[in-house]
Amino acid sequence: MRNPAYLFLILIILLFSGGLLPAQDDHAKPDNIKRLLREGKGYFLVREYINAIPYLEQALQIENDNLEANFYIGLCYLKSLERNKALAHLLKVHTLSPNYDPLMDYYLAESYKYNNQMETAINAYETAKSKFVGQEGKVKVMNDELSNKDFIALIDQRLREARYGVSYLADPTNAQVRNLGEVINSEYGDYAPVITADESMLIFTSRRKGSTGKGMDPEDNLFYEDIYFSTQKKGEWTEPKDIGKNINTKFHEASIGLSPKGQTLFIYKDENNGDIYSSEQTKKADWSAPVRMGGNINSRFREPSISITDDGNTIYFSSDRPGGFGGLDIYVSKKDDKGNWSDPVNLGAGINTPEDEDSPFIHFDAKTLYFSSKGHRSMGGYDIFFSELINEQWTEPKNLGYPINTPQDDIHFVLSADYKTGYYASAKDDTYGDKDIYEVKMPDYKDVEVIDFALSLKTVSVGFNPLTTKDPRRAVVILRGVVKDELSDELISAKMTLIDVEENEIVDEINSVSPKGVYYTTMNTGRKYLLHVQKEGYLFHSEYFEIPVGVVNQEKVLQIYLKRLKVTQSVDFKALFDYNSAKLKTQSLPALLKLQEFLETNPNVKGILEGHTDDIGTNERNKTLSEERAKSVYNYLIEQGIDRNRLSFIGYGEEQPLADNETAYGRSLNRRTVFKIVEIN
Description:
By secondary structure, this protein is an alpha+beta fold. It is built from eleven helices and 39 strands. Helix 2 runs parallel beside helix 4, helix 3 runs antiparallel to helix 4 and helix 6 runs antiparallel to helix 7. The longest helix has 23 residues, at 148-170. It starts with a helix and ends with a strand.
């Protein structure tokens, strides 16, 4: 909250000045300029820079060349989001009175930097530094008193930033940055965007008119923060909506993190110096009441931002708690077997600096960390950097470069799962009034030739683009779509499980419930996956994916149609055996798990396991072998808790082929085990 002394001083100013800007016809009176300057400087002295600007602007309408008004409004702009406006005013002061203030060269250097005039800024910084080298005593920089030594160190830091700026501006990336426009942004502050991995939903923070509490924060005379959301339809963002009263209150709430599937939202509340809360999306697409995260995450210090991995087991967050490297640092915490977050670990000097590091975002690949920093090789304020986790070590952070980064604060960066589109907040020249949300088409993505890959249990031609970088570790495939009833074509909610076949482990569990029927997941290159879809009253559905090494990050759409259960339906699954053996191979476990889950999901179903072989060997041996293999599956299911009264088995040998036995492919189709429904109670 604001220092009471500030409030008292402002009250005195208002009492003696009338407290309001004068009416338009009073501006022409020359005697008003002193009062306007007094009011403007009064706000300046209590660091109310934004509130000072209107009074100083009124003074300049009366006397455009007034040195005092130009000087103080220039300093106020340097403390605002419109820093580039400072230059014109300070240049006027310098032209009319070069020695108006001992720090004039320093303030001019700052102004040049915010106008991307880096070489000129460097010259001005060096001139300013030369006037203080070797001196003792104190220096007052705006409202902050520094030792001469600290002021020289500050100039040296600014010189480093400006030199980095020279290199970034001289070698811009081909990133395409655009303001998201007035549908999303308002004349007020709009920032802290978070997205789902498939970019179907954008959630952000705004201080726009119409906030839940309707009131203004007395500390800055702006509306309280509320959280809004927008969905993307046909490539366009819809009109933002209030996220709801379960989350927004009459005080501050800010969106600071979102799980990749959009089911967990992390919220910053201005309580206990600033704490993190979480909220879950319900089946009705509402949000639960926010719950404060535990003591291992929140402290009595400030925790302003957070990000969570796709598997939900690791979080990265910022905090200014003691024991860090200076200011805000980034920490990591992992979830234990009981669902509790471990003691956080500082990411170390490779990521954190003596300056502030904030707004971490761990990409959906769980290996690439984006964050904003005032340190490292920043060109001024917060710049966005990224680092990659290789062999359990974070690589040296790299600046995303210009035009993504500018001398302004560039912060709250998030990136789609395919690495192609980022979103972040900044105060550029084309803002609608305050900080705005920007979209960035990331650099170096190119169209290349198409190859095929295996989809489902059939070979289907689906376009996948070969990777254009030399780092295949970062390639991911987004799979999304809807689940429908085959007959009615209606969207249905279903449980979906993605299994890494080679590792025999579940890598993602998806519920297509929010919104109903819609799903998405991500898969890495060079891996083989099974996607199981379960719904009570329906046959289970499986898709097999074999994604080759060396495909570019991309998105594919797969619509899934589930069949309603009926008697005599057959359920195919792949139970694998060695040649002439009835012992189940380990690679069969994902398919067996699929059948087990189907029976657990549909407890009213009874069925028979049917074994089949090809025609190699004698008919008698094949019939015996097929029955033994069916019995192996039968025994497995009983061991997993399936009631034996629901199951039976039989072997048909080579009697019921699906294909001819003349080719290896045909014989492979004939070697199968089938579960056939015989009764639905």
